[in-house]
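User: My instructor asked us to take a sequence, write out its structure as C-alpha cells, and then describe one feature of it. I'm not sure where to start. Here is the sequence I was given:
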Amino acid sequence: MSVNALYDKGLMITVGLLILIVLLSSCASTEKKVDSDAVRDIEIKEEYGVDDSVNELFVQAVELLNQKKYEESIVLLKQVTEKSHKHSAPYVNLGIAYLKIGKIEESEENFKKALAINPDHPVTNNELGIAYRKSGRFEEARTLYQHVINKYPLFLPARKNLGILCDIFIKDLNCAIEQYGAYLKLKPEDEKVQIWLKDAKRRAGVK
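Assistant: Let's start with the prediction itself. The C-alpha cells for your sequence are:
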C-alpha cells in the first residue's frame, strides 16, 4: 500500500503507508540506502478525518515527490498543511522534499512540526536523524535513532541508519556491529548489510 492511501483512509497512519517516505530518504551515503522490506508491521494512529479536496492535493503532492519533482511537490504540500494542521505526514513529506534539494533548515523545521503532532512517530524521528546527520549533528542523530529503536525495536531503518552513522561518521565500530547484527537477525537476506557487518568486524578485530 502506498503513501497515497494515507488520506483515503483518513483515520489511521501506519509505517506501511509511509514506506515510500523511507525509500525517498538518503542514509549515510549514496551507496547505503534503506529499502521498503526493512519496515516491519508497526501501527501508528492519527485519528483525524480529512476533506476530500485536501486528500486530492496530498495524493498529487506524493506523486510529484515520487517523481522527484521536489519543488512542485513542496508547493502542493504547503497548501495541504495550510488546510490541515493535524496530520504529521504532509510535514514529513515536506521535510524530505526540502532535504532532497539541500534545504536542511527548512527540512528540520517541518520534521519538528511533524513531531509536535506525533512525538514518537518512527518515520519522522528517523528522517530528522538523517537531516541531523547531513548537517553534521551526529550525536543528535544518534539520539533520535536510538529513541526509535527503544520505542520500536522492529523499525529496521533506524537500526540501519544508526549502524551506518556509527560506522562511517562516529567511528564507533562496536555500535555499528551491534546495529548491523540486530538488523540482519530480522532481515538476514540483505547482502549489503552482511558485507558492512563483515567489514566492521574485520576493522574491529572481531571474528
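For the description part of your assignment, you could build on this observation: The chain has one domain: 5-155. Try explaining in your own words what that tells you about the chain.
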